[in-house]
Amino acid sequence: MAALSLPSWLKRGEAPASCQTALSRQPSLEAAIEEVAKALGNRGANDLALVFCSTSYASDLPRLLPLLRSRLNARHWIGCAGGGVVGTEVSGQARELEQQPALSVTLLRLPGADLQLFELDPASLPDLDGDNLDWINWVGADPERARSMLLFVDPTCQKINDLISGLDYAYPAAAKVGGIAGHHSAEHGSLFFDGRVLTGAVGCLIGGAWRLDPVVAQGCRPIGPVFEIEQAERNVVLQLSSGEQTNSPVNCLQGILQSLTPAEREQVRHSLFLGVARSNFSLPGESSPAEPTAFLVRNLLGVDPRNGAVAVAEKLRVGQQVQFQLRDAAASRQELRQLLRRQARTDDTPLAALLFACLGRGEGLYGQPDGDVSVCREQFPQVPIAGAFCNGEIGPVAGNTHLHGYTASWGFLVPNHDDDGVPPAAARTGT
User: Quick one: average pLDDT of 399-415?
Assistant: First the structure.
């Protein structure tokens, strides 16, 4: 029998890893904190506390962390307010609570973890054309110690895409998962960091014996062929080609409509998107790449009836592959189920799962509550789930981090098998 290689933290005799979680739906903040604190108790020191609450408590947010910290013990605190809350009750039942008061608190004991927390003021972003050391120094965290990143951004933040690109530039090996916090009318921000409520951005780099495995479910299914962009101006597509045929995007779509069912043609009226290729330029049937083309799903912003052009919420370039996409509940379930099956086949059992879902998912997409967490429960029946409904979801596609819409961005907290720089797992993404 081969010798069992023990994690270094276990060799040192540290306390075992643990995840305690609690969820409250009490309408008052004090009652919610009381219920959560009573459920969690004060069972020793924890390394990280994740706090997610509904914007229903907006006016009371400055009191949230001080009250929690007086009752619960954790070295670091981070989280955000959202349009909804994802949490796990003491009974183990995972819930998605939308548009109602809710508080979700998760306490993590992570032996061997290397945690670097940071807060950022995006009003003073370094230059993306400058040295990546400028970004590293601005964040104040060591990229060599980082395998993953939790990232939360206040909805008032400017240049969010530049911020995400800069963090990729500074920390390319760290898989990034998170979201844009919820809007509210109070004067303070929506981000939680240690004992404060902040604007800007906050994050936690995770390294050492732990990492986050990202899973990004965009919830669409392709319709029609993969096209290549023949003409484009910034975010406007003017001409597409498929084989020897070239046409306007609108004419290409009209051809696709003829092959759809009446129900699918009705969906096109309100659930049509464009998938933009991120990984390569090889069309199916040509010299096939090692990995299939990854599509970043983007909104269609408008149509020019004069020339059949379409505007897309993404900068485009000639030669890029695109494919029209439809979003519906069945496609979302199927895609997420496939991605989570792949995650479940890895060797690492998650200690916790973090979900950052679009406000457009949930009951609005599935027609019933707990749509995403119920699919997760099929593969991970016992893993605690926590997170928030966001105004934009952060997660990687084809090696780069993007700001998404209508997406479920997951992070599975799993152990590394050594403390010597194991790289993060490649993101699992759909479409």
Answer: 94
d(CA 209, CA 140): 21
Residues near 38 by Cβ (< 8 Å), separated by ≥ 6?
none
What CA–CA distance (Å, rounded) separates 22 from 257? 48
Find out whether 206 and 115 touch, Cβ atoms under 8 Å: yes
Q: Token pair for residue 323?
A: 């494919």
Q: What pLDDT is recorded for position 184?
A: 93
Q: What is the DSSP string of 273-326?
A: EEEEE-S--PPTTSS--SSPPPEEEEEEEEEETTTTEEEESS---TT-EEEEEE
Global model pTM greater than 0.70 = yes
Give the 3-state secondary structure of residue 369: coil
Q: Tell me the pLDDT of the chain averaged across its residues.
A: 89
The DSSP code sequence of 151-212 is: EEE-TT-S-HHHHHHHHHHH-TTSEEEEEEPPP-SSSS-SEEETTEEESSEEEEEEEETEEE
Phi, psi at 400, each rounded to 5°:
-120, 145
SS3 100: coil
Q: Is the dihedral of CA 35, 36, 39, 42 positive or negative?
A: negative
